[in-house]
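Write out this protein's structure.
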Amino acid sequence: MPSKILRSRIVLPLVAPPIENGAVLIKDDTIIEVAPFSSISRNEDQDLIDLGESILLPGLINCHCHLDYTKMAGMIPPLKHFSDWIKAIIAIKASWSYTEFADSWISGARMLERSGVTSVVDIEAVPELLPEVWPATPLRLWSCLELINVRSKTSPATLVSDALSQVATLESSHPNQCGLSPHALYTTTDELRQEALHRARHDQRVLTTHIAESKEESAMYQSATGPLHDWLAPQGNAAHCGEGSPIAILERTGYLNYPILAAHVNNLDAEDASQLASHHASVAHCPRSHAYFNHPHFDWRSLQKAGVNITLGTDSLASVKTKGNTTPRLDMFAEMTCLATSESAPQPIEILRWATINGAKAIFRSNDLGQLKGGFKADLIAIPFNGPITKASEAVVSFDGEVSFSIINGTMIGSLEQQAHLSSNSP
C-alpha cells in the first residue's frame, strides 16, 4: 500500500507542542514522521489526505467500558443507594437474551468509533458474544472476562481456566486480546483474585477490578455497616468486612502485586493513593458515571501526587443520566467535557493525556499507542476546528459531535474515508 500523508491545520502530538499546518506520514500501520507539512518527507507515490480546518490527534483510549449494557441507557433512574442500582441491573441482565446483549454490544462499539475511540478496555459479562462481535468493529479491544464466585462451588483455578478456554481459539486468530476482570471485592474471593493475578502475570494480560466505587462499599469494609453490607452479608459476602478500606484489603491480600487497572476509586482512605502508586496501579475514572451516582469529588490530585497513572473511561450507559428525551451515547468527548466542567478540574491538556498517553500505559502499550510519534501505531482522529492553535486542547476536551476522520492501525474506518479530501497537490 502507498504511504499516506495526513495534513491538518493543527496537529496535536501531545508529547510535543502543537504544530500549525502539520502533517503525519503513515506507512502501512505505523507512523513514520510527525512534522510541519512543509518539511514532511514527500514522494510521488504517496497519498495526500488534506483534513483542512481540523485538529489531528491520537485516537482516544477508553479504559473502562461495558459494551454489553449500551442499550440499558435510561432504564435505571438514579437511585438512593448504590446497592439498589446493582439489584436493578442484575434484574435487567437476567431478562435479556443473547441477541439483546449482542445488539447492545455492537451499538456501543459504533458509538465509540464515531466519538474518536480507537482502543477500549471492555468488561465482558457475556463472553459467548466475542466470536460474533470482535469482527464487527475495527476498534482495538481488550475484552476483560468478568469473574464472580462468591457463591460458586467451582474452584477459582477452574473458573479462570474455563473463561480463557472459551476464547483461546478466537485469540489465536485475531489481534484483539482478552484480559481478566474479577468483578469487585464483594463478588470475588481472595483465591479467585489471586488465580486471576497469576494468569494475568503469566500471560501479560490486562487485569481490572471495580474498587472503592461507592461510599456504601467503603462503609461495608471499614465498619461492616451500610446498605451494601446489609444486603450482601446475609448471603455470605462478608469476608474482610470491618477490616479497612477496600484498597488496603486488596494490598494486604496480595492483589496489588501486579499493575492492575482499578476502576473508579471514588473513595480514598489516607494511605490508598500511595499503596496504588507503590504497586504501579492505574485508575480508570468515569466522570459521567461518577456524576450519575453523585459520588464525592474525585480526588485526582492525591492520586496524581502519589504517582498513580490516571485514565478515563465511559463506564456503561446504564449509569449515565438522560437529558430530556435524548438518549445518551458512549462518548469519550462527553466524559472529558464532564470532567473539565467539574470542580477543581485538571487542565485540558492533562485531561487529554489521561485519555491517550495514560490509557496506553494502563494497557501496557506505552511504546506504540497514545501518541503521535514515529514508530507508533497509526491510530489517529480528527475533529473540525478553525480557532487559534493556543485553544486546541480546550477545543478537543469540549468537542460535541462526531469525529470528521478516524484511522485505526493504518486503516481509515467506516464512511469517514469519504469525508477526507484526497489530493496529490499541496494545500
